[in-house]
Amino acid sequence: MSDNPADVLIVEDSASLRKIYTEYLKSESIVVDSAASLKDAREKLAERAYPLILLDIKLPDGDGFEILKELTEADSQTLIIVMTAHGSIGKAVDAMRLGAYDFLEKPFDSRRLKSTAKAALAQAANSTERAPLESDQKIKQFHSFVGASDAMQDVYELIKRAAPSKASVFITGESGTGKELCAEALHRQSVRSDGPFIALNCAAIPKDLMESEIFGHLKGSFTGATANREGAACMANGGTLFLDEIGEMSFDLQTKLLRFIQTGIVQKVGSNKDEVVDVRFVCATNREPLEEVRAGRFREDLYYRLHVIPIAMPALRDRDDDIMLIAKNFLKRFSREEAKKYDGFSPTAESIFRQYSWPGNVRELQNVVRNIVVLNQGGIIDVKQLPPPLDSFSAQVAPATKAAPKTRRRRSKANSGLLATTLADVRPMAEIEKLFIENAIALCDGNVPKAAALLELSPSTIYRKKIAWDAENAVKAKA
Amino acid sequence: MPSVVESLDKQFVRSIGSVLDLAVMERLLEDTSVEFLPSLIEVFETESAQRVENIQANLAESDMSKLSVEAHSLKGTSATFGAESLRSLSERIEKSAKAGDTATVEELVPEIPARLSAVLSALNEFAAKLES
């Protein structure tokens, strides 16, 4: 037992590097223990837990990843900063995926080590018990997200897992899928939530002003720079920097961004003074990032730096019933804002909402609902209140959605014998379902997919039911 | 504050500049202290002597896997001092050992002691100049 418990365990086989790192941290009053091998480290870890480990990957008796895996499996609260050789970014990415908090590429200077270690120790001090992630209940709302679909449960889970780390997150997804909401959720879920969340849209800023937007500038450094300006990187110090539409960034600036990510050092335009900032990077694009790399428009090294934890936002059409959940949520919100009273969507309107492909995703749905709320008076929203292109969409899908219910209604009136008039006539639902499905298949000359389309069921559902019915019939035939 | 390196005479800077990157050394001194340097050089000297011994033993046993790890460490330490020629030699040895190219390893390993002693004497000279 030591009298002054160390904050950091340095696992590094080189004696001179251990000495240097210890000296660097000493100036911040950070107390250090050190181990020269895996065996050494395991012995130290058996004695006590450390808030932070600085872990070299290549050790004389094995791979530093082993310690990383052991601690992750033990669900340890220890944060791990992995130290990798220059040019082995792949290893660093692997380490982050295995649960490392951050990584340092050798050789690094004292500022980089100190700021990384201090940020990690602050997080370790703040960290509360991690919320249990395994829960059978589906989450319907998560930060600003609304959605209970499986696709979104995966997104929530990823955000929760990624949030405590400092690893860069790369969000992809079509426009309107909520990439900025995802970045915000990552920030709010993290221990940096008290720090700033700074979002910068690289597509919205003229290319020649971009550098000064990110890094800031000094008065007089270029025409129009009439005062000193703080850049987004410095403003995000202690928090999260979200770079949206990063695919729009010029190649030149990508190089500067890469240097900033590697060193944590910012230089304002027109200044030669270094400022060290501690920022978590989250970026997003609606392009396919690897394709951009292959086409030579995006630096590969920057891609690997940023693409540590990828989160793909699902398109709205792939989110099952989320469409109506979100639509109703917007309807409630906008009705309140507009002081109008709406009673929901008609079944036909819902059916159109469910079948429309929503190329503009949640943003388009939001606009559609706002449009409806503003332009109408209230009540139930039906087809005629839908704005284009949804109104014409209803005509296109007429056989399946609009006309079909009408003919069905007419037919059911004609065959009113199907509807029970006495209690004795009430039939089990399964029987009626079988009757209707078999009738539809017969009308379609045995064409199951066609019948399925008219019934608005998936063909596989019908095939499954048919197998069950055939089995039942076989049993009955035997009896 | 005038830089440590600027205060040294030009001829000296030229003579050790071929072995050590003085910008890296200067950064190291800024991050630690002039007093720290001698003890660091001592640790480095002991460590690298051991490493060279290990590398030679690994080579004798044809254990290329262990040899590549040792060369990797030597590469990292020499990069920290800005000892570029030693760093690049270690890197070539590490890569050849990984590739199982024993012939190249055999050819390169004997070059280490001379380069290492050049680095060590440059470091010691540098430390001595700073003290004076």
Short summary:
The complex is a heterodimer of chains A (479) and B (132). Chain A has 479 residues and is an alpha/beta fold.
Number of helices in the DSSP assignment of chain A: 20
In CATH, the homologous superfamily of chain B goes by the name HPT domain
| SSE-based structural type of chain B | mainly alpha
Profile the largest sheet of chain A. Answer: 5 strands, parallel
Unreliable segments of 5+ consecutive residues of chain B: none
Can you tell me the CATH architecture of the largest domain in chain A?
A: 3-Layer(aba) Sandwich
Measured by residues with Cβ under 8 Å of the partner chain's Cβ, the largest interface is: A-B, 19 and 22 residues
Query: What is the beta-strand fraction of chain A?
Result: 15-25%
Radius of gyration of chain A: 30 Å
Task: State the main characteristics.
heterodimer; A: 479 residues; alpha/beta; Rossmann fold; Helicase, Ruva Protein, domain 3; 4 domains; 5-stranded parallel β-sheet; 20 helices; globular; B: 132 residues; mainly alpha; Four Helix Bundle (Hemerythrin (Met), subunit A); 7 helices; 77% helix
Characterization of the model:
The complex is a heterodimer of chains A (479) and B (132). Chain A contains 20 helices and 20 strands. Chain A is of the alpha/beta class. Chain A folds into 4 domains: 8-126, Response regulator (Rossmann fold, 3-Layer(aba) Sandwich); 141-314, P-loop containing nucleotide triphosphate hydrolases (Rossmann fold, 3-Layer(aba) Sandwich); 317-396, Helicase, Ruva Protein, domain 3 (Orthogonal Bundle); 427-478, Arc Repressor Mutant, subunit A, CATH 1.10.10. In chain A, the strands form 7 sheets. Chain A has a 5-stranded parallel sheet with strand order 2-1-3-6-7, with helices on both faces. In chain A, helix 1 (15-26) links the parallel strand 1 and strand 2 (32-35). The radius of gyration of chain A is 30 Å and the shape is globular. Chain B is mainly alpha-helical and 132 residues long. Chain B has one domain (10-131): HPT domain (Four Helix Bundle (Hemerythrin (Met), subunit A), Up-down Bundle), CATH 1.20.120.160. In chain B, helix 3 packs antiparallel against helix 4 (64-80) and helix 5 (84-98) packs antiparallel against helix 7. The chains are: A alpha/beta (479), B mainly alpha (132).
